[in-house]
Amino acid sequence: MALARTGSLSAAARELGCDHATVGRRVAALEQALGLRLIVRLPRSTPLTQGGQAIAGLAAEIEEQSQAIARHARSAGATPQAGVRISAPPSIAAHILAPRIAAFNQAFPQIVVTLSGESALAELDRGEADIAVRMVRPQQPELLTQRIGMMRYALYAAPEHAALPDAARRFLAYDHHYRQQPHQQWLQQLLQGRPVVFHASDLFSLQQAARSGLGAAVLPTFVADGDPDL
Question: pLDDT digit string (tens) for 144-170?
Answer without folding.
Answer: 788 888 889 999 999 999 999 988 999
